[in-house]
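Hey, I'm writing a tutorial for new members on how sequence and structure tokens pair up, and I'd like a real worked example in the thread rather than a made-up one. If someone can provide the structure for the chain below, I'll link this post from the tutorial.
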Amino acid sequence: MGETPARGIIGPRVHNERMATDPHPAPGTRRTPSPHPATDALLDRWNALLERSGATAAPEPYGRALLARWAEPQRRYHTTDHLLAVLDQVDALAEHATDPDAVRLAAWFHDAVYRPDREENEERSAQLAIRALREAGLPAERIARVVRLVRVTVHHHPLPGDRNGEVLCDADLAVLGGTPEQYAAYAAAIREEYAFVPEELFRAGRATVLLQLTALPSLYRTPAARSRFEERARANLAAELDTLQ
């Protein structure tokens, strides 16, 4: 999820100059986590997606490098589970999109660069998408479409008629409309990612972001997401606000 003045309290931010597609990261820069249970299934989805998108290079090394980023140790909410959840929501909302595969590619990259204590995570993720997809041989027009969508997640405000942006943003924000237990786990994971922020500052910043969200006429743009998540998301936001104020 992206940011506003206090936006980092609800979503991503990272600064890492190394290429995600680099199969040989500098020694000591990354741990070697246990493979996520969905790794093979995610790689199958990635490989098929890149092949459909016109890749001329073998897609799997790029997918593995991206999954290594999603498994970085500073992540608590913006993890492989989040990637999987967003991809599944994109699939569920795909009928609304004019180019579902562009949305899927953007989902893979939208938080690929992430560190909560840094600025410009989305822009760095967009630049990573440019480099990686260009190396993989995707057409320039396809890359531009994906990069634009990654940048939409900075503020989650797609322009009217941007059906692809609407799907990506709704998929990314679907977590707000989970069960109370799912929402509580999400909020706790966000707090862990911002453990470096003192409690008083975190509570104030988080409350500001949640108030901005509750002031929106609608949290979701697609009819399906609005029907499925809007009411429960507003109840979850109100409940968390009660604990912060």
